[in-house]
Amino acid sequence: MANTGRAQSGARTFFKGISRSRESSLFLIIFAAFLLLALLKGNIFLSLKNFEGITTGITYDLLMAAGMTVVLILWGIDLSVGAVLALTSVITAMLLRAGVSIPLSVALGLLCSLGAGALNGFCVSRLKIAPFIVTLAVMSVARGTALVLSSGYFLSGLPESYTHISEGTFIGLPIPYFVVLFVLVVLHLLLKNWKFLNQAFYVGTNPQSAVLSGINANLVTFVGYLISSLMAGIAAIFMSSKLAMGFSQFGQLAELRAIAAAVIGGASFTGGSGSILGATLGVILIAIISNGFVLLNGSPNWQQAVSGIILLVAVGVDAIRRRREGRE
Questions:
Q1: Could you give the residue ranges of the DSSP H alpha helices within the chain?
Q2: pLDDT tens for residues 81-116?
Q3: What does the alpha-carbon distance between residue 97 and residue 116 come to, in Å, rounded to a whole number?
Q4: What is the sign, positive or negative, of the torsion defined by CA atoms of 52, 53, 54, 55?
């Protein structure tokens, strides 16, 4: 009986540990959703074409969710990432069409995204303007600028060699997969092991205490917004290369998906928590849910509503988690 009691206690401890680990819980939910769709729509869901569609979409979302996670850790938010993606794609496409070399066009496009991030970071860290207001304004400016520069048209006719950025393969897999994986791993390691970036957790938890302890909170915050916009810029390069054009309407609702994935992955609107692994699993879960919605004959017109519902659920889960942590 004693051995049985210890076994039951050990099992409860094990499952309690899993339930408290956001990454473990997400993995189990993703596995369950995968199995359910495999049972309901096996032939379609498990097809190579369907998986290619899912992985292509999450390539961009993974980058922006990772950047959003850094900003949320800092007790901020970045509503401009989708518009920055669009503006970067338009500027890069315009340069390519003007005969500028691919490396220089890509570099200038990424520099544009960094400029948006610098503006966000400066206004939030130095001018102490609320992140919601600042990034909302930059979103409007970036989207409007992209619309004016492109006159609302697709900027096609890009060099064929530019499409090789997204179409090139290594050991049978698209090169962007390896680039995104590399970026995510590097950002994860920097957040965990680089003292400067790891300070983001302290800044997000209590900015005043962080400053008193000698942390340059303004610089850490500034760099956090640079990272967020740079991730959007890299996503823009891959998207414009894949579709062979720049467009002012790229990145619509990208910020909502990024926020939802980051929060589902453990980031909080009150700062101080979050992980790149959690955000990655959040992106995968949202992608599987969205794909399942389509496969189960859900109307494409409801996709925006589904994104909003996922974000609402993510916010609710975050609120419940914070309330539970407060009681403990």
A1: 2-20, 22-40, 42-45, 48-73, 81-97, 102-125, 131-150, 160-167, 175-193, 195-205, 207-212, 217-243, 254-264, 276-295, 303-327
A2: 999 999 999 999 999 999 999 999 999 999 999 999
A3: 23
A4: positive
Domains and CATH numbers, the chain: 49-320 (1.10.3470)
* Region 315-319 average pLDDT: 76
What residue has token string 């609120």? 319
Which ranges in 74-130 belong to alpha helices (H)? Answer: 81-97, 102-125
Which residues are 174's β-sheet partners? 169
Q: What is the model's pTM?
A: 0.89
Question: Other C-beta atoms within 10 Å of 192: how many?
Answer: 12
CA–centroid distance for 199 within its chain: 21
Quick one: angle between helices 175-193 and 160-167, nearest 10? 60
* Residue 212 and residue 41 in contact, taking contact as beta carbons nearer than 8 Å: no
